[in-house]
Sequence to fold (277 residues):
Amino acid sequence: MQMVMSWLEEIQVLGFRKWRRQRLRASEMPPAWLAIMERNVPYYDLLPREQKRQLQGLTQIFLKEKYFEGCGGLDLTDEIKVTIAAEGCVLLLGRATDIYPKLRSVLVYPHAYVAEVADRQPDGTVVEGWQGRLGESWMQGYVVLSWKNVLRDIARTHEGRNVVFHEFAHQLDNESGRSEGAPLLPESSMYADWARVLGAEYDSLCDSVERGETTFLDPYGTVSPAEFFAVATEFFFELPVEMEQRHAELYEQLKRFYKQDPARYRQRARCADGPIS
Fold:
């Protein structure tokens, strides 16, 4: 009897969540929140009208379901929460998603913070110490971010870096149960090409960095395939035209995964801003 009741209660909770999400998707975003998105999420301006509406709905769901906590003396504001939620939800546009189902909390520091680390050496020994961080993503259900660096990335989109995109890409990667640069793909037929293209691009980046060459993608992507996927995600959304030109196959794989074409969005925006003839 207890098992039956638990099952029924779970069904009720899922039904309520579905109803609430539908209501939030259909509701108008508060004007103050929308103004924050328009000011702090440059990618929002590039989106087609329908995807703008979708991002508003996803952001409202995220803000309702995820817990935000200010750390290191940071007082949380709507600007902080809406900016991070909206940028995190950019990665979900157009995809069948449960809106980061493993994520429970977003912890925000005012600036870069220090975290304890334990590095395993080649001989098997473990060296403990402290390391400065701009952000982290954990499979246990939380993301950590430096607000100062979130704002820095917003102001410098030409650099291709975005700590929110990076850490939330890790959350997508973790949904498969492992963090290895292979998130759950929408079609099983995609895995072979994904492994071939991203594997080759990762190896190429590692080789270029080892030779001391200047690379388009951030050398931090050489740390692991998981970091490569997160770095590639940053550049896909921040410098899509350049990525498509320099790494066409990688761009195509990410376009198929994210079901977005930011290079076309950006080119269309440039044409719209051009001279009238």
